[in-house]
């Protein structure tokens, strides 16, 4: 249930129609009605003569109050209003910031903004909120009866939760979204949709189809225990295209989808490609769920039989190789996917730390620190040497590495950078050493 929601309006016909549908959101106790301005309105007249006309700001406040009163009378719950200013014209950012700072769990918006041309499905502000918000987002889509003007909009929200289409890919975000839908307690009917890879064929395709049917039957039975009538559909092709197509074929009242898919949620990305594609092309109301998932993260030393996994990741980092005879390799596994690496290589005259690498999509979560810590804990009973890039000298310093002269490196380690002809700074590296504590 949604006790508190943020409703964003730009006073367009789509926004007004969206407000008429807010009462269908279950469990409402408080509504925050928000309008965003992109410039600061003058508070006093700058002309020589006083004008009896209300200022632009007063006009906006009056319109906002009118919408607030209408919404409060329609829903019977307390409605507050807020006029906020967008920094640098970032309307979506202002809405997201307010929702996050006030800890509001759901943002509700109209799908199209003020003054958009016919044919546009998603306005730029709605698109920005969907892509960047970590809050659940409900986008109400409407269409003109003749699909040419904003007047005479036809509502898709006559009962927005009456028949929900839930795409499933059997990932943890998908499971969380289904549990979310079940626990709402207001959905009588759900259609499950799984879109298979169109490239599969023959025996593989038949086997995959049967396995999908088995999994979906289990989900159907679970939903039935919650009093929800469920059915399943399996299609093949482009997931986003098939989801929007099935939504139209079945005339569903709402599409409910996780913002991240099977291979997305372990990466540092705000929204998955399928969810974004559905958001951009669906003409039905869309509920974008941001499932809270605690990632399973394992830091460990790789066995020799796992070195090929490291080499696959290192393809993006100078195509490094690993030799079980001289290397110890450490990795961070995120949900069984290798997301960070570090290598300790034994040379004839010392140990070298190198090949520390985290692919772009996994950065920003501290995985590099985890893997270096594992390496240092395991190999740090001997002196460790390395060539650090200049921008990471401070990072390695937190593990006890200090900068040294090039001549203080063991010869076999120093020779790896002989191409620099003694100008390591010019090569953007600095020699470092760690003495065992």
In brief:
By secondary structure, the chain is of the alpha/beta class. The protein has helices spanning 13-20, 56-75, 91-101, 124-132, 172-184, 202-225, 239-250, 273-281, 307-313, 367-379, 393-397, 411-414, and strands spanning 4-8, 30-37, 78-85, 106-110, 136-140, 142-144, 153-155, 164-167, 189-196, 229-236, 254-258, 286-289, 297-301, 327-334, 337-347, 350-357, 384-389, 402-403, 429-434.
Reconstruct the topology from this structure.
Layout (H helix, E strand, L loop, with lengths): L3 E5 L4 H8 L9 E8 L18 H20 L2 E8 L5 H11 L4 E5 L13 H9 L3 E5 L1 E3 L8 E3 L8 E4 L4 H13 L4 E8 L5 H24 L3 E8 L2 H12 L3 E5 L14 H9 L4 E4 L7 E5 L5 H7 L13 E8 L2 E11 L2 E8 L9 H13 L4 E6 L3 H5 L4 E2 L7 H4 L14 E6 L3
Parallel strand pairs: 1-2, 1-4, 2-3, 4-5, 8-9, 8-11, 9-10, 11-12, 16-17
Antiparallel strand pairs: 5-12, 6-7, 13-14, 14-15, 15-16, 17-19, 18-19
Helix pairs in contact: 3-4, 7-8
Description of the structure:
This protein has 437 residues and is α/β, with parallel strands linked by helices. It folds into two domains: 4-45 and 54-289, 3-Layer(aba) Sandwich (Rossmann fold); 297-434, Aminopeptidase (3-Layer(aba) Sandwich), CATH 3.40.630. The protein is 31% helix and 26% strand. The protein has helices at 13-20, 56-75, 91-101, 124-132, 172-184, 202-225, 239-250, 273-281, 307-313, 367-379, 393-397, 411-414, and strands at 4-8, 30-37, 78-85, 106-110, 136-140, 142-144, 153-155, 164-167, 189-196, 229-236, 254-258, 286-289, 297-301, 327-334, 337-347, 350-357, 384-389, 402-403, 429-434. Strands 3-2-1-4-5-12-11-8-9-10 form a ten-stranded mixed β-sheet, sandwiched between helices. The longest helix is centred in the middle third of the chain and has 24 residues, at 202-225.
């Amino acid at each position: 249930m949604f006790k508190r929601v943020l409703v964003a309006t730009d006073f367009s016909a789509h926004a007004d129609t969206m407000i008429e549908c807010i009462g269908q959101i279950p469990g409402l106790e408080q509504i925050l009605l928000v309008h965003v301005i992109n410039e600061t309105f003058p508070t006093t007249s700058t002309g020589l003569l006083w004008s009896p006309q209300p200022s632009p700001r007063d006009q906006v406040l009056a319109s906002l109050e009118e919408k607030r009163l209408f919404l409060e009378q329609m829903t019977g719950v307390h409605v507050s209003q807020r006029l906020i200013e967008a920094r640098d014209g970032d309307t979506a950012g202002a809405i997201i910031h307010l929702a996050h700072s006030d800890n509001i769990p759901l943002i509700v918006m109209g799908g199209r903004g003020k003054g958009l041309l016919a044919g546009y499905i998603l306005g730029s502000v709605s698109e920005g909120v969907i892509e960047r918000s970590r809050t659940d987002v409900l986008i109400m889509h409407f269409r003109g009866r003749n699909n040419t003007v904003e007047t005479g909009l036809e509502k898709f929200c006559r009962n927005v939760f009456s028949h929900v289409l839930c795409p499933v890919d059997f990932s943890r975000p998908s499971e969380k979204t289904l549990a979310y839908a079940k626990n709402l307690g207001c959905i009588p009917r759900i259609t499950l949709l799984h879109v298979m890879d169109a490239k599969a064929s023959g025996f593989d395709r038949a086997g995959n189809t049967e396995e999908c049917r088995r999994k979906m039957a289990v989900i159907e039975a679970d939903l039935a225990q919650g009093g929800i009538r469920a059915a399943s559909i399996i299609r093949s092709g482009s997931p986003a295209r098939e989801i929007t197509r099935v939504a139209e074929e079945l005339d569903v009242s709402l599409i409910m989808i996780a913002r991240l898919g099977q291979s997305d949620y372990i990466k540092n990305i705000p929204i998955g490609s399928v969810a974004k594609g559905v958001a951009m092309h669906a003409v039905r109301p869309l509920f974008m769920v941001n499932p809270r998932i605690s990632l399973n993260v394992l830091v460990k030393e790789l066995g020799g039989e796992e070195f090929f996994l490291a080499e696959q990741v290192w393809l993006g980092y100078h195509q490094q190789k690993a030799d079980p005879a001289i290397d110890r390799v450490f990795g961070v596994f995120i949900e069984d996917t290798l997301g960070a690496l570090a290598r300790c290589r034994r040379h004839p005259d010392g140990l070298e730390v190198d090949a520390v690498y985290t692919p772009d999509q996994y950065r920003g979560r501290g995985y590099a620190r985890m893997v270096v810590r594992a390496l240092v804990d395991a190999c740090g009973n001997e002196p460790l040497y390395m060539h650090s890039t200049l921008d990471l000298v401070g990072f390695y310093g937190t593990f006890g590495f200090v900068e040294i002269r090039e001549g203080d490196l063991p010869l076999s380690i120093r020779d790896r950078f002989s191409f620099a002809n003694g100008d390591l700074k010019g090569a953007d590296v600095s020699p470092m050493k760690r003495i065992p504590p």
